[in-house]
Amino acid sequence: MHKQTTNGHSVAKTNRLETLFPLLAWLKTYQRETLISDSIAGLIVAIMLVPQGMAYAFLAGLPPQMGLYAGIVPLFIYGLLGSSRSLAVGPVAIASLMVGEAVSQHAQAGTELYLATAMVLALLVGIILLLMYLLRLGSLVNFLSHSVITGFTSAAALMIAVSQIKYVLGLEFPRGHGFPETLGNLIGHIPQTSLITLMLALSAFAVMWFSKNHLATVLAKLGCSGLLAGSIAKAGPMFAIVLGVALVELFQLDQAYGVSVVGDIPAGLPAFHLLPVDLSWWQSLLPAALLIALVGFLESVSVGTALASKRRERIKPDRELVALGFANLGAAFTGAYPVAGGFGRSMVNDASGAQTTVASLITATGLALTVLFFTPWFYSPPKAVLGVIVIMAVLPLIDLSGIKSTWRFNRADALTLIVTFAMVLIAGVEIGLLSGVALSIALLLQRNSHPHIAIVGRVGDSEHFRNIKRFDVKTNPCCLGLRIDENLYFANTRYIEDEVMAVVAEQPQLQHLVIICSAISFIDASALETLEMLKDNLQESGVTLHLADVKGPVMDQLKQTRFIEHLAPGQVYLSTHEAMRDLCDL
Amino acid sequence: MHKQTTNGHSVAKTNRLETLFPLLAWLKTYQRETLISDSIAGLIVAIMLVPQGMAYAFLAGLPPQMGLYAGIVPLFIYGLLGSSRSLAVGPVAIASLMVGEAVSQHAQAGTELYLATAMVLALLVGIILLLMYLLRLGSLVNFLSHSVITGFTSAAALMIAVSQIKYVLGLEFPRGHGFPETLGNLIGHIPQTSLITLMLALSAFAVMWFSKNHLATVLAKLGCSGLLAGSIAKAGPMFAIVLGVALVELFQLDQAYGVSVVGDIPAGLPAFHLLPVDLSWWQSLLPAALLIALVGFLESVSVGTALASKRRERIKPDRELVALGFANLGAAFTGAYPVAGGFGRSMVNDASGAQTTVASLITATGLALTVLFFTPWFYSPPKAVLGVIVIMAVLPLIDLSGIKSTWRFNRADALTLIVTFAMVLIAGVEIGLLSGVALSIALLLQRNSHPHIAIVGRVGDSEHFRNIKRFDVKTNPCCLGLRIDENLYFANTRYIEDEVMAVVAEQPQLQHLVIICSAISFIDASALETLEMLKDNLQESGVTLHLADVKGPVMDQLKQTRFIEHLAPGQVYLSTHEAMRDLCDL
Predict the structure, then answer these.
(1) What sign does the CA torsion over B96, B97, B98, B103 have?
(2) Mean of per-residue pLDDT scores for chain B
(3) Whether the predicted pLDDT of A293 surpasses 50
(4) Cβ contacts (< 8 Å) between B537 and chain A: which residues?
(5) I need a surface site. Which of A47, B139, B159, B294 has the fewest CB within 10 A?
(6) HEC per residue, B374-406
(7) Using the beta-carbon criterion (under 8 Å), do A501 and B309 form an inter-chain contact?
(8) What are phi and psi of B287, to 5 degrees?
């Protein structure tokens, strides 16, 4: 990736700097073409991010400029620290929903406290990500199975889409608690739909739909270069906003027809904010911040990994924790709210030719110029248009198509998906997500808690021992070989104890029981305790317990304890063959 | 166990009845000797249970008669429904602590509401146990690893012992919130120790200690039969109570010296109680009830299993859920509080010769006679003596001796034990227990999330393929065999994806990657998704993914999906040998 100098010390130093700032390594081979490519991608993303930032902030119950601010300092920081060449960081839909849900439990919408709470949330998300880096806890995302993520994302996207319909229809009613109430309110208020607002929304939708599906082709036919045509086509949301603002201004839709608009956007760069320190307030926000951090990190790493793989490269999850952590701290102190790497914009960034995080720096510059000079263009955007932008962005996330095939493939996963989806809608994003995680882990343990156990016998005169149910083998009623096909740990010890005692209860002549450990590569303390008890219980009923085929690492583990002494007169045999020959005359 | 009639229908019917009421089967072979044996055991347990019941009720903040009532109807019910011959059900120490903690959060001690809340808790525990039976959720106890149980039990026992010291010293201060406050209060009030109370407590301790350790020997020397001497020796707590009551009465210790006594015990059998139905109140008690049910069921099944194993018998955990469920319902409606199978009394019951649950019926009869006729004997027992009885009962449960050896055996288990122990003391029994469970599962997933992955090569000209790090094998830079030694599921998919891409990134010439699935017996939906993504990502970087050595059940699973079609041009090979021969010219 970079030239190595002959001076070892200098190499180490350079590498260290380049580990901290991956951009430095990329800049070494940076060329004019790379800059052009990065600039185009950065500008296209900026043009997407301006309307999306406003719309997502609005979704979180925040003023539109907070969404724009979330695209400035955090992006500069990610550009310096990020290890993904084309991840597009900034405000994202699901995190915005989660911020809205969390903040509205602590403050009244529209108050100073509401805004401050959103910023504190960004601060906490940043701190949590950095702690996850320091404690090497990035693997916490492993707790989120594919089914949980699909169920969660689909339900969250559905909640988001439904929450925006009221703006599309121009309805006015207070924010409900949870999805069922929101849906009920929405249905109850449908008769009060404002037709003017709905028409405005439909025009915005038409503009965006046409831009997305046909504009590039039309422009290409008109002689426009493919690259330019593609870039212009991605500006659909921008066209929709500009059109909406123009229509409102032109026909005084807000004053004459009561079309709702978001407040004005103040011009100027975001100011530095000091945040109030109140530990009990922070503590109450902690669970929400933890989930926003996890979900944001997961989304960023997933899309970052996918984009890097295409180049046979890898992102470094640990570096991403640092980059996203500081990006969120940047958001917190510049009047913004939690950010993450967004799925849609990252795809566009990559497809538009982003080669390095210079593209992020360009995007951030674009946003900064926008808030400095172009806010009059976005004077009081109509809420209906922002609603349409949000709906168009989240609809592709609703993906329940796989339930049927998942059901066939693995019932437990399908059940997890359905329960997560339903719980998010019924009980909210946080409880829903946690229920999904708990269920997926419970079902996993449930599956692991019934390992396969086989009684084995000798195959002919060979040294092989096989399951008596599948092979014609020799056995001896005084002596039994039992193979357990799973590691021994707390989730299955009770089952194994039960099964072993059941086998013993059926064999009145039994004197020796040999547990064959060829498939056991790990024993935890619960299982050790169970083995001790099993040995005692067997002894009291006149049966001696032996082990055979114990793997090296397991034997090392057992030697740390007094189990092998306690086992006497039972023994540990090297192989099943030896055990059965010595004990059972087989 | 019982004679079978020749009439099949009748056999089925009888067996069904005997499944519901295990006692019926035992009564078929019941003889005079069995009755004598059961009666002796039942009476000994009754003599233990009278003082323990009062002391445990007191520990839960309840009047002493509630502890006695908990030994009547619930024991009759368990006697009819229980599948363990010698489990001694009734009030137990840790459940009493949990009841006290839960109830005192909802009601003022000493009020009617406090008593009603304890009964509702028994009702909920009963309902939960019966639901666990209906939903086949008995395996929920598998979530409690040995380390969690040891940490939890030790901390709970320590809390119980410390909570009783104030009565032993005759101190008066309000019940604190949590262990640290209780301990602080205790230490702060030590200067106010009442010497008379302390001496009373020490006398009770001396009586119990002597009974436990020396009385049997002394009686035997005096010519008493071994059985009788052993039985009398177990009545230590009873002697202590009677002595305490006598001393208080004789010297008017309560009025003249301010020695605290528990209120009088009303004579007469418990009345039938209707419980107030208030769903929101019930709901707030649900988490506590769930944990009390789990912990009680776990204790009962553990000791029941251990006792049954000695006879080469098994208890049926499902029947225990039913028996304990109804026993708790019985407790709820007869003015008692949650019950479980106790460790200490069950051991005594078994050792004293209990052959069937007739022993439980005898114990219950003994308790019923006590509340009918003998309450004057236990007139106003001094709190200090009850405190000593509780402390003596729980001290053996504090068992942290194994931490050191557990640490050597398995760090994760030792960590779980220590964290559970500390969290129970700091944050209370419920949060402590849940933290322990969460940590043990997290550490398990953490361990499982880094499976062993080996690059393999051909051993000589054989059909065997082995780890290139351990064997001298042939490989081909264009074609790689990768063996994954673990089932593929959500906890390890990201690691595996990462490792695979890392291997690929290091092999610029690579064209074919063969994943060897010989150790994979299960693939979940997350892993399937990862395989799909891996295939796409590899394809984009010019590498074709293949599978080899896929086990039958896994292949069946994959055939339910379109993965194998999507894999093309990648293929599924029967063996590594074939794959490497065809793809790699090896």
Answers:
(1) positive
(2) 87
(3) yes
(4) 306, 309-310
(5) B139
(6) HHHHHCCCEHHHHHHHHHHHHHHHCCCCCHHHH
(7) yes
(8) -60, -45
Task: Check CB contact under 8 Å for A492 and B526.
Answer: no
Q: Which chain A residues are within 8 Å of B417, Cβ to Cβ? A: 525
Mean pLDDT, all residues of chain A: 87
DSSP B476: B
pLDDT digits (tens, 9 = 90+) for B98-131: 999 899 888 888 888 999 999 999 999 999 999 9
Partner-chain contact A142 B497, CB within 8 Å: no
Confidence of residue B520 (pLDDT cuts 50, 70, 90): confident
Cross-chain Cβ contact B526/A413 below 8 Å:
yes
- Do B146 and A310 lie within an 8 Å CB cutoff? no
Distances (CA, A) of B34 to B30, B41, B86, B234, B351: 6, 11, 13, 21, 14
Cβ atoms of residues A276 and A82 within 8 Å: no
Structure token digits, residue A62 = 């925040």
Report pLDDT for A506: 85
Distance between the two ends of chain A, CA-based, in angstroms? 63
User: Of how many residues is chain A composed?
Assistant: 586
Q: What chain B residue is nearest to A492 in terms of C-alpha separation?
A: B142
| Phi and psi based region of residue B496 (left: phi greater than 0; alpha: psi -120 to 50; beta: remaining) | alpha
Asked if A228 contacts A200 with a C-beta cutoff of 8 angstroms, the reply is no
User: What tens digit of pLDDT does each residue of A544-574 get?
Assistant: 999 998 877 788 888 888 888 888 889 998 8
Residues in A touching B146 (Cβ below 8 Å): 490, 493, 524-526, 528-530
Q: Do B560 and A446 touch (CB under 8 A)?
A: no
Closest CA to A389 of A264, A239, A263: A239
Segment among A203-217, B184-198, B209-223, B259-273 with least mean pLDDT: B259-273
Are β-strands B453-458 and B465-467 bridged in parallel, bridged antiparallel, or unpaired? Answer: antiparallel
Residue A8 pLDDT exceeds 50: no
Q: Which residues of A touch B492 (CB under 8 A)?
A: 142
**With the C-alpha atoms ordered A175, A176, A179, A183, is the resulting torsion angle positive or negative?**
negative
Looking up tokens 């301790």, which residue turns up?
Answer: B205
- What distance in Å separates residue A85's CA from the closest CA in chain B? 16
Could you tell me where in chain B the CATH 3.30.750.24 domains are found? 453-584
Distances (CA, A) of A14 to A18, A23, B331, B433: 6, 12, 73, 49
b/e per residue B485-498 (b: at least 16 CB within 10 A): ebbbbbbbbbbbbb
Interface touch B405/A562, C-beta < 8 Å: yes
Q: How many residue pairs bridge chain A and chain B with CB atoms within 8 Å of each other? A: 172
ipTM: 0.72
Structure tokens of A325? 């952590």
Contacts of B312 in chain A (CB under 8 A): 501, 504-505, 541
Which of chain A's residues have a Cβ under 8 Å away from the Cβ of B526?
A: 145-147, 413
Over pLDDT 70: what percentage of chain B?
97
Point out the residue among A408, A494, A537 whose CB comes nearest to the CB of B310: A537
Task: Output helix, strand, coil percentages for chain A, rounded to the nearest 5.
Answer: 65, 5, 25
Mean local confidence (pLDDT), B356-380: 89
Q: What is the CATH number of domain A453-584?
A: 3.30.750.24
**Buried (b) or exposed (e) across A540-561, using 16+ Cβ within 10 A?**
ebebbbbbbbbeeebeebbeeb
The residues pairing with A467 across neighbouring beta strands, listed in sequence order, are A456
pLDDT digits (tens, 9 = 90+) for B556-583: 888 888 888 888 889 998 888 888 888 8
Please tell me which residue of chain B has the smallest CA distance to A505.
B312
Residue A539: list chain B partners with CB under 8 A: none
Is cis: bond before B569, omega within 30 of 0?
yes
